[in-house]
Input
Amino acid sequence: MSAPSGTERPARPIAGGAVGASPTFADVNRDVLRTLDFPGSAYFGWMSLIALILATGIGCWVLQVYFGMGMAGKRNPQMWAMYITTFVFWIGIGHAGTLISAILYLFRAKWRTSIYRGSEAMTIFAVMTAGLFPVIHAGRMWYAYWLIPYPSERFLWPNFRSPLVWDVFAISTYLTISMVFFIVGLVPDIAALRDANTGWKRFIYGLLAMGWQGSDRQWRHYRRAYGLFAALATPLVVSVHSVVSWDFAMALVPGWHSTLFAPFFVDGAIFSGFAMVLVLLIPMRRYFNLYAYITDRHLDNMAKLILVTGLVLTYFYACEGFTSWYSGEPIERASYLFKWVGAYAPWWWLQLFCNSVAPLVFFWRPARTHVPTLYVVSILVLIGMWFERFNIIVPGLAHGFYPYTFGTYIPTLVDSGIVIGSFAWFLILFMGFIKVMPSMSIVEVKETIPHPVRDGHAH
Amino acid sequence: MAASTILGVFAHVDTATRAIRELRARSMRSIATYSPVPLDEFEEALTGHGLPRSPVRLFTLVGAVTGTASGFALTIWTALKWNLITGGKPVVSIPPFVIIAFELTILLGGLCTLLGLFVTARLPSLRLSPRYDPRFSADRFGVEVTCEAAERRAVEDLLRDAGAEEVRG
Amino acid sequence: MRDGRRAGEGMDRRGFFRIVGASSAAAAAAGCGKTTEAILPYVIPAEHIVPGAATWFATVCRECPAGCGVLAKSREGRIVKLEGNPDHPVNRGALCARGQASLLSTYDPDRLPGPRVREGDAWRPVLVADAQKLLVEKLAAARQAGTGRIAMLTQLETGSLGRLADEWLKAVGGRPRVAYETFAHEDLRAASLAVFGVDAIPYHAFEDAKTILSLGVDFLETWVSPVGYAGAFRRAHALREEHSARVIHVEPRYSMTAANADEWIRSLPGAEGAIALTLLRLVLESRQIPALPAKEVAALVAAAGAVDVEAVAKQSGVPVSKLKSLAEALVKGAPSLVVSGGVAASGSGGVDAAISVNLLNYALGNVGRTVRFGPSSSLSRASRYADVLALTKAMAQGEIAVLIVKDANPAFTLPARAAFAEALGKVPFVVSLSSHLDETSARAHLVIPDLTPLESWGDYSPREGVWGLLQPAMAPVPKVGPTNPDALDLPQLRAVRDALGRKAPETFPGVETKATGDLLLDTGRALVPGSEKTLFLAKSFADYLRESWRAMAKTVSPKAAFDGFWEDALRRGGYWADVPATKVALRAGVKVSAQAPPLDGSATDPALLVVPSSRYYDGRGANKVWLHEAPDPMTQVVYGSWVEVPAETARSLGVQSGDVLRVESPHGAIEAPAYVSETLSAGAVAVPTGLGHTAYGRFARGVGQSPYALLPAEPTAGSGGRRWLGVRVRLQKTGRREKLASPAGVTEVDHSREIFETVGLTEAVKLERGGKAPAHANLPSMYPDLKYPQNRWGMTIDLDACTGCQACVVACQAENNVPSVGKGDIDYGRSVHWLRVERWWDRGHGGAAATGHAAVPGGIGVAQAAETPAAGRPSARFLPMLCQHCEVAPCEPVCPVFAAYHTADGLNAQIYNRCVGTRYCGNNCPYMVRRFNWYRYEWPAPMNLQLNPDVAVRDRGIMEKCTMCVQRIIAGRDRARDEGRLPRDGEIQTACQQTCPTQAITFGDLKDGKSRVSRLSGSSRGYHVLGELGTRPALTYLKKILREEHA
Output
């Protein structure tokens, strides 16, 4: 089919204005099912490259398990470094999805319909990636399961005062609820796949569709339940990254011990989350030719969100600086100053550029729909957000209370390899997903386009 | 006397809705619909009011309350098991336990909602309705009505007149 | 210790020790985690060895000539720890870092397990019998060739072994034995002879002095008897009844001893003599000296005679005013004590300095009071350096047919110029009886390794009136290994493992050799017909020893029955009696010169100060990995040596710390990384001794550089001693860099952080009169105070007492199975030390105590235009940092699995088995004292036998830290419970506390109001490190007292 180019305005504005030249119900099914066609060589080329990177990462991890944590560059005082950085980074990425699907759903922001499936998938996979890191990070990862409360013969339970245990609960809850939300949203679409396929595919999709047939009874409870999920997920989104931020805020380390952290982290998470959504959707839109569904309107909205969250983040940076100065606490000040001029200063300034300066370009309307700009800025934001976490953790620990142990952490091949491998792991999951499941919601897109009527409106 | 079920397949929302209204006008009560998207029109036509009512929320409430309770129970009980003092804080230190309780509230709330959905929507079910048509997940709407054998013909006509592309038993 | 009697019957004791040893190997392996070895039951139930209960044997530390008494802790037949013998008059229960580490020479994986014969460059193991036969043949042949062709070179042996060796040499017609000590302090002997007609190194009673003036003497580090003198120093220096001795140190270099003095006066190299003589003159002029016979006064005046104060001030760099105030201090602060003869200052002018100091002490009336000739040091019985040279000459000229070397390593410690190695090559048959393959033994033809002191009988007398007794505390080290049978050994990963330097499983064959004493008796009998009836009657050296003690007993306690005497000596670790100071008189016509002879090399080059290392001594410490891992007290450098360069010189050379310098003297050259020093006197460079080995085991080989290569061969005129201060060196940048590895990050004292606190003397006195504990020690908390049902263990560390000597660090490592992680990892902040002694630089309020000086041409110091302001120079502060066992511990609540929690008796516990390794606690500890096991660390066999069975060996991936020696607490509690009482105060001692030469550390129960620790932690000098964080540590530090306002 000849796709209308992404830049041309919709033929006629319609409900929520989400969709361009308005397709019919049939078009929607066709266009979405098309994305599940057997992929070409380009797809497999990319996949094998990513798989190679992932294999390298796994190799590094094996070395670390076999020889000990010393293989990674950690040291005193940086007992935490890139693993926790990347953990927080991925948790942050995992925010946009549920935010879009839950909060925007409650706000009835119709433009979300064509992008929420993709971002939800991103959320799930990001959290699954993040979940690896606490395990990779643990000195005796083979005992990491001790953090999970389970009845043992010694009645040894985890220490519920420890923020790490809060993490276990927050993240596993977040993952579970997001998945339920995600799967429930998928069911009607899987039913569509079932009906459109034959043979073993039909059988498998049939099982997954759990006998969905879009009857009035099913729809009734479905919509109710969906609303409730959204209502539950919303506070969860906010709580998860707050809890993660408390890993730091609960600690004594200068620069960590701050009430600022919860909102600071949540905002940063949304910020980076939307950047990641753009990074994934823009190529997807092109590859699957979904210009009719993912339009400039979407890009524009997300650019705006990035801009706003970016400004808020900048405000938090200012707060961080102000509080450490206003505290009058020399150790606090020294630690903050170290970020500006110390061994890690370049990364600090890089972070400021990526997170506070680069997004400002979105004040300029054309930039918000100009794909290359969007793409570059999103990538910068991701880099910036990774380094934000790095700059909280590594320099923070490098310049704590006790000068005698001040020191500089230098990454090794092993921890770098594992971190890079995690990106490969995420991409493999995502790219695998878009070929077996509809990466755009059939049902919700249909909801937003005019329903087929013969003579005027039903009422 | 044998009852028989008739299915009308519609291409349009308005025609299907009209069919439902007329069926209800003939005081037909056992009407079911199939649609690719949830439709307020159908909801209204079937129930007389738009908003879907559902007992799912009760499940959610029960789940959430259980979650909160079990959250506090777990943390306090396990803390008392060993009475380990850390950081000079009381063995039963409530503020951190609130977080656990909160997470469990959401978790159990969510899972019970899922359970509620399954129970109320009769999911998962292995067998689809014999009259279910694959096009219902694409761009067709089905109106299914169960009536006395005697009324069969009349209902079929009604559906056809309403604009059903196809009517089958 | 009720083992005295059994200790008597040497052989059968060894017999069952073998069995015990064999099984204990398994026990030890069990100590280091999972093992597949079977643990054998005792074949013969060993008397007085209760599994799980320690047995203690009193013996003597032979790591240096000080001869401190030690108690060796035996567990299942192997010695796991050494501790100072509290009854011993020399060290009074304390031990230095070297003493603590000396244990490792027994468990050195590279020690020789049995006799070896050289074949080309290879060693062939031989049976003891064959080795002895070969030796006897060679000796017989040498005797045929005539007398004086057999020579023996040993370390200082002042006991029965020395006597036996001498008798043996006489019997076989050998040359007189050479007892070689690297630091023999010949200058002191020469001076005593010149001034008092006694060839001896007197006992210096630091403890009785009110004013101590040290002219370049490192009496806290290596000098004569460092542990004993450190304790004495502390007893004099401690603030008691508002008084404490005043300690002044004059030296070009800011040594550890200088850092512990109240005032450090930076002089120019070699000026000690001139200063002493000037002081003598000023003291005499003061007319306030005790009454002396007129002719003695005349002699003194004559000696002091011509010295020109102005000139000396110029030459020494010490201003006249300062000299005057020094003299005044000495006169006013009687009894005083002036010491000289530190290694770095002996050599050119060393004898004159020592003579002047003797005269000065005499004038001040110290001789007989603080300078006592009765209990003289046994070092005066060591051979002079000149005698060693003579032997070398004889060897070079082929006069020696058989040379026997034992525990002396001249091939390493003599100046390269002395060409000992070459001379050794001229000797047809060289026999080494050393237990380790050092540079000298490596050149031998036959090695019959002696057992280590822990495995041998023997005795040693460190000074008159003290006879230390050595007994075999354990059987020779048994067969061991492999050390980690469970270590996965995937061939695919070997390359990586090797790249990482991880060890493959190792084994140790087990020691099978003959003790030197027994060897001498047997060979003597074989060589000298009939001697088995007379001279070599004793059937074993044990008997010989016993007999010689019988003889001694007759003189010292004629009445007592010998058996009782002997058993008592075994139990106490020897016999000692007070020796009164013998009266000495001033000799007439003592000549002394203020002008030191010039040094070799061009006058514009800096003088070389050879600094005896407080860790490696003359080099014999270098094969002990614990000493490598403990940082140097002043530079905090681990592994490797350095060239200490004054900042000025460094600037002019454009050198920074870590740049490799070529140091060239007229006699040789070395290349070592620079350590830029803000304190070292311009016109000097300093190089520590002890490293730069080419043999002597895996830990010593190839680490660092040795200054011996730079020194002149010819001895000091007048004393026949080494010319330690003898050369000037030319420095050259090589362009290479070699980072000095150190665990230290930033060590500038930041007064905005509550880390190292000081208090002025007057203030301290005020506080002592009636200050109260600082308020913030217990900041308000939101939570109710913790209840401690029984005890609350706590500790105090008196920063005024801590000298920074690192003894506690090594003791902790020995007690708690702390792994050695290697140079790279220590430098990268991965040291696992539970306790570190940090050296901080304090430039805070007014900078260093030292006074500045202008370096002037003419003196020994080199022409340096710029004058260094004293204020620019930092003072060193020493802070032992370990787990503070906080009551409100930040590390505890963050642990997700309760691995860290607070015990009912106030300990901050770490449960290794529960630890998952999230390292959150490590981040959250403001003191950064939590340690992580980055790898699985190895103890190459037989080092694993040293592991303390009471302490778990931690696996990789877990956190660990100071436990306040919980195993000792438990042992103490159990002992008390068995005796149906509560633990007494001071009964339980932590390892660090036990070994501290200045008793800076006190441990005890804070709940018991009468305990010493609770008194001290309530002290008005007390404070908590980072106290404002409100962590409520169980450790209280007592502020260091700055006594500078004396000056």
